[in-house]
Amino acid sequence: MAKRFEKCQIDVLKSAFEESEHLTREKKIDLVRTTGLDMEQIASWFNRKRACKRARKSLGDLERINAELQLAMEESREKEAELQKKLNENKQREAELEAENQSLKQLISSYLWR
């Protein structure tokens, strides 16, 4: 089973990661001396840390995009409801005008056939 790093080792690695996410060979050698870890352990820790950072960024991006989509969907629903209301009003007005038109046609017809 893999041995966990000590807190002081993690603190040194975190500090180095904050300075730069990618290590130079010299910095790796310095970290080997400072932490007592080997180069492979240090490189692996940095790789995992970068992967976690990318994953957190991706998750944040997805959450932001999801929020934007939810807002757009709500706006779309509101616009759809508004358009549906206008459509219903127009249909009602069309029916009223059609009835008025029929009434006027009958009136004209009755005057013409007198």
Automatic annotation (TrEMBL):
| Gene3D superfamilies referenced in this protein's UniProt entry, alphabetically | Homeodomain-like
Q: Name one Pfam family in it.
A: Homeodomain
Per its UniProt entry, which superkingdom is the organism in? Eukaryota
* Keyword Coiled coil on entry: yes
The record, for CDD domains, names: homeodomain
User: Which locations, inside or outside the cell, does it occupy?
Assistant: Nucleus
Keyword terms: Coiled coil, DNA-binding, Homeobox, Nucleus
An example Gene Ontology molecular-function term: DNA binding
Q: One Gene Ontology cellular component annotation?
A: nucleus
Q: Which residues form a coiled coil?
A: 52-107
- Residue span(s) of domain Homeobox: 2-59
The keyword Aminoacyl-tRNA synthetase belongs to this UniProt entry's keyword annotation: no
This chain's protein is named Homeobox domain-containing protein
Organism field: Fraxinus pennsylvanica
Q: What is the lineage of its organism?
A: Eukaryota, Viridiplantae, Streptophyta, Embryophyta, Tracheophyta
